[in-house]
């Protein structure tokens, strides 16, 4: 049996392949072991049931009576079927005739109990008696030679998004367009992220800022974002080198598999929670005014940071434990196939753990999202109500607008973070998983968007604040003076 590849024209047709719908993809009149077939399955190739072709009276006829009319649908079709037969249409002289044979519609595609396909994938063999090769047809959201890899949108890593697009034994210039774009975006993100993190750390390590809990949160957030940017760049570079078969040391592969994606996930969750803490702290500061206790706020912030780090690690630790390497060797002799080897770092969850993982992902994303929406609303409404008591002759809408303008620098950050979280929420709850390589751009954009909040600390916290900008200017002047003192006279 030669090499055969079937492609779907659209996602709907791919889904139909996993149901009882049948298609006539290719007819091979003579066996050819070395023949390579690449065929696109189109809607016109579908083999409909006779219930779609004849009326109900005809369907109720006895099989012997109705089968002699089976040549009629062949004038417009290439195949069709009933409950017993599969009929292929062919040209005989000037006529289109039907060649019908018995077909087992209840066939189970499990390679006669020897299937290696996972996650309910269907198994197909090249021969009934002495099979030499088998392939798996995976359910939606799964891929790989044994359907062992999943594309769940909430836990999809770079391996699942870009792994199959990276060609081994090729340099960067010969890689697909999506890989080149991803590399360019990674470099841009790293440059912006490093500048943002360094400037933020320079600003927030000031003693005056760290006298309150908000300053402690902001300094910790800046350090975490620096760590995210460094690991993000390292993660992409290692994935590229692994799939290009430049790195192959198994010990190193295992270490990076278990730790890099796990640390990235923890840090991204912590960024969400620290932004929430900052929003809450700012709201409390404005509402309490003179009653606000700086010392207590600073001490509480330190406790909360420790609790959040421990809590995030404990809730996500399964991600690091259940990750493992899968090495796929491609034994196809297709000259066009340059992906001879793939090395995947994947999580292997059971059903219960998969449900738990989804709940945890949803919790770490949705709760901060909701708090970032609620905190500025509470702040503006509370201040508006206070002012309404004092200025009861004014319209509430005017007071509300005035308070919004007064505290807009405090609500910019929550609003921006809410907007950036929306695409990820849409992908998780609307699309659920990447069902086709055509979806790769959507999930790639969603993946990169998740890192944008880590690059905006300086923009959304320092630039809108007069106090933070002044402290940033003082810090820069201090460093310039220190550099001048170090220069030889």
Question: What can you see in these coordinates?
Answer:
The chain is α+β, with helices and mostly antiparallel strands and 489 residues long. Helix content is 53%, strand content 12%. It folds into 2 domains: 108-137, no CATH class; 158-486, Rhopdopsin 7-helix transmembrane proteins (Up-down Bundle). It has helices spanning 11-16, 56-59, 63-66, 158-162, 177-204, 213-243, 250-288, 294-321, 351-390, 396-406, 408-431, 440-449, 457-462, 466-486, and strands spanning 4-8, 22-23, 37-41, 46-47, 79-81, 85-92, 95-102, 122-125, 134-137, 142-143, 149-150, 323-329, 341-347. Strands 5-6-7 form a 3-stranded antiparallel beta sheet, with no helix packed on it. A two-stranded parallel sheet has the order 1-3.
The percentage helix is 40-55%
Average of per-residue pLDDT values: 81
The largest pleated sheet is described as: 3 strands, antiparallel
Q: Order of helices and strands, N to C?
A: EHEEEHHEEEEEEEHHHHHEEHHHHHH
User: For the largest beta sheet, what order do the strands appear in spatially?
Assistant: 5-6-7
Pick out its properties.
alpha+beta, Rhopdopsin 7-helix transmembrane proteins, 2 domains, two-stranded parallel ribbon, 14 helices, 13 strands, 53% helix, disordered N terminus
